[in-house]
Design brief:
The structure holds two protein chains of two kinds. By secondary structure, chain A is mostly helical. Chain A contains 15 helices and no strands. The chains are: A mainly alpha, B alpha/beta.
Chain lengths: 280, 300
């Protein structure tokens, strides 16, 4: 299993470095921009002119002058979607991607259990995602004192934990779907679609209260976002973690029983119609 | 189950939906032998190998590999087996040496690295080249090295010399014979009849999910159809030979020469020829390819 963890990290190093550097730079820039916000006259009044449908996606936008509101608006409100796509694509291809390329065919002939492959690759993904978020946290942390955010390292770290769990949750959904659907790209599309729909519900439920009952059933309802700076809600975090574990365990169970396809084989087929076809 | 057997397969059935890939396959492979597995495309060769490795699960039947059940103890099977797939794919961005290092790590580093590099050297592999830049033949060499580097007790190889030039094919045959001399059992499938004929101690022919014949290559050849050329001292009515059981006349040159196709025992024909003024007889040994093709045609 440890070999697979190392190997997965090696394979994901490009993504880890790219995302890590990008989010580090973004954090550095946005942290330094915080003090400039106070100097912008009429900023809050201007916000009121934005369409409510748009403002609905940033629930703390009118609190933007505070560190929590600022970080929630400019980072935690939409990073679930942006980094979420990385998680979905990575996990949908974690095992099934290699199966479709024909690479898994050789690897499962080695004396590593299916569980070893599964958990090794998943843990590799989780470590890579943690590295990306760590880089992002450092981007906010380094200028935190001079930027006026005045948040400690622990306070800054706290909201990254629920974000991490949400990313692994949607990765787990993608991983499970890759075990159930005929192709990794279908799993990517389905899991990505679920992530997008959930994100849209975050905003739409603020405008259309009738969507609230559906929104309350989705993972992002339990996501604290920037509010975790003041303290993590361990109950909701435990709930999210439980959901994550459930999807991962189901995916693991399916992989243990999976028939490894030769690259390119397999898929759903529509049932043949009783009529049709060329008559001679 | 017999512990002297490397592979024992009993009544193996495997279906993919409605398609029956294996319909009661029975195979015995003794330890230390080279066993060839022949069959047309879609016959069930790869399905059989993948069942042996627990990549896919049969609907019924049993398999024992070196005394282990692959479904109950797959890791034990994988420890003793070296596998070369028919459709070999590896991570494209790895260099050859890094790929081999990764495979060695997956074996818990129970690999003699000197032996691994020796194999690579014999096959002329450049270890610093990325896999994606290798030709098909060179990728096959990497596949051979990873299959053999841990000196497995059983080699499962699907078309081992696919993509290799004739010189490299010969080198691989030498390596396989050396492995056999070292006690390794080799189970391989191939479309190259000469390869099977020259390497295999025993051959099984599979078609439509059933093993239709299993024997030493020589026995297989001798059991089957042969061609005989008979020259007579003068013109005779060669069509009378068509009436001999198992004999059919292929051609006759003005009645003085007859080309005959003989199935099975020669005794009837030899006795029939006693009535003819025969001046010369030559028997053309059927190749395994002709035997093979004859099976394809009769079973389809």
């Amino acid at each position: 299993m440890f070999t697979e963890i190392k190997h997965t990290l090696r394979r994901m190093r490009g993504a880890s470095i790219g995302w890590g550097i990008g989010l580090f730079a973004y954090g550095l820039m946005m942290a330094n921009f915080f003090t400039s916000l106070e100097m912008m006259e009429g900023f809050l009044e201007n916000l009121e002119n934005y369409p409510p449908e748009m403002l609905a996606f940033f629930p703390n936008i009118f609190d933007i002058m505070s560190p929590i509101g600022y970080m929630d608006t400019y980072y935690f409100s939409y990073m679930t979607l942006i980094i979420g796509f990385f998680a979905v694509v990575s996990c949908a291809n974690l095992l099934v991607g290699d199966e479709e390329k024909g690479i898994l065919d050789l690897l499962v002939s080695y004396p590593v259990s299916r569980s070893g492959f599964f958990w090794g690759r998943l843990l590799g993904f989780m470590v890579a995602t943690a590295i990306i978020l760590l880089a992002s946290w450092l981007g906010w942390l380094i200028p935190a004192g001079s930027s006026g955010l005045n948040l400690s390292a622990v306070e800054l770290l706290q909201p990254f934990l629920p974000l991490y769990v949400v990313l692994v949750l949607f990765g787990g959904i993608a991983l499970l779907l890759s075990m159930l659907l005929p192709a990794a790209r279908m799993a990517t599309a389905a899991a990505g679609g679920l992530l997008l729909v959930n994100y849209l519900l975050v905003g739409l439920a603020n405008i259309r209260t009738e969507l609230g009952s559906i929104y309350k059933l989705t993972p992002l309802y339990f996501y604290q976002g920037g509010a975790a700076i003041e303290g993590i809600n361990w109950e909701t975090l435990a709930g999210l973690t439980g959901m994550t574990l459930m999807f991962i365990l189901l995916a693991w169970w399916r992989f243990l029983r999976r028939e490894i396809r030769v690259g390119g084989e397999g898929g759903w087929k529509l049932p043949k119609l009783a009529f049709g076809g060329r008559r001679t | 189950m017999n512990n002297s057997k490397a592979i024992e397969i009993r009544d193996l059935h495997k279906s993919y939906g409605r398609m029956k890939a294996l319909q009661g396959v029975n195979i015995d492979v003794d330890q230390g032998e080279i066993f060839g597995f022949l069959g047309p495309n879609g016959a069930g060769k790869t399905t059989t190998i993948r069942c042996i490795l627990d990549m896919i699960r049969p609907q019924s039947g049993s398999i024992q590999v070196m005394g282990y059940d692959p479904q109950k103890n797959p890791r034990a099977v994988h420890r003793v087996v070296g596998y070369l797939p028919g459709e070999l794919s590896m991570e494209a961005n790895l260099r050859v040496k890094n790929a081999l290092r990764y495979y060695a790590e997956l074996r818990g580093n129970h690999v003699d690295k000197d032996y691994m590099y020796q194999l690579a050297d014999r096959l002329g592999l450049d270890l610093d080249t990325p896999i994606k830049n290798l030709s098909k033949g060179n990728k096959q060499k990497v596949g051979l090295v990873q299959a053999m580097m841990h000196k497995p007790r059983l080699l499962l190889m699907d078309e081992p010399t696919s993509g290799l030039d004739p010189l490299m094919q010969q080198e691989v045959y030498r390596m396989l014979k050396e492995a056999k001399a070292g006690g390794t059992t080799i189970f391989f499938s191939s479309h190259i009849i000469n390869e099977v004929e020259s390497l295999a101690d025993r051959v099984a022919i599979i078609n439509q999910g059933v093993v239709i014949e299993e024997a030493e290559p020589e026995k297989l050849v001798n059991m089957e159809v042969r061609q005989m050329r008979v020259r007579f001292k003068n013109e005779v009515d060669t069509h009378r030979l068509n009436q001999v059981p198992g004999v059919s006349l292929i051609s006759n040159g003005n009645g003085a020469v007859a080309m005959l196709r003989v199935e099975g025992d020669l005794d009837n024909l030899i006795k029939a020829l006693g009535e003819f003024p025969v001046s010369d007889i030559s028997l053309q040994r059927q190749s395994l390819e002709e035997v093979f093709l004859a099976y394809y045609k009769t079973e389809r």
